[in-house]
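Task 17 of the worksheet. Students: predict the tertiary structure of the chain below and write it out as structure tokens. Keep your answer in the requested format; marks are given for formatting as well as content.
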Amino acid sequence: MTTTLLVFFLLLFSILVLEFFFLKIKVNGKAHKQYHFTFSRYVFYIIFLIVSTVFIIYREGISLLLTILAFTVIGPFFEWFIGITYYKIVGQKLWTYHRGTVHGYTSYLAIPLWAFGGVLAWIVVKYFI
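Model answer:
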């Protein structure tokens, strides 16, 4: 149990440290360069998500797959539903996607992120509740 959490949070910490170096942030107060979406950075993040998810499934069992599948279906649906409902009520998009969009309210590229959200929810429920 603690080994799984430790490895997961070490992987998460390492990805944040690498992102810090990718951004080339200056400590002395100078402005840092702002990066926009690149497919290589997206793949880099997805590799982290896949490695950590496979490790957790290996350590904890196959029951996590049902949670992942549920989040990959329900998450994008609700993201699309909330986005389109907000647009119909307010007349302005709540968020915008420029790549892989589903009518501009969600993206195919967000599906792995919803799966990882399922992994995080599963970890919180299993270990903290």
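Marker's comment: Residues 64-90 form the longest helix (27 residues). The chain has one domain: 2-128.
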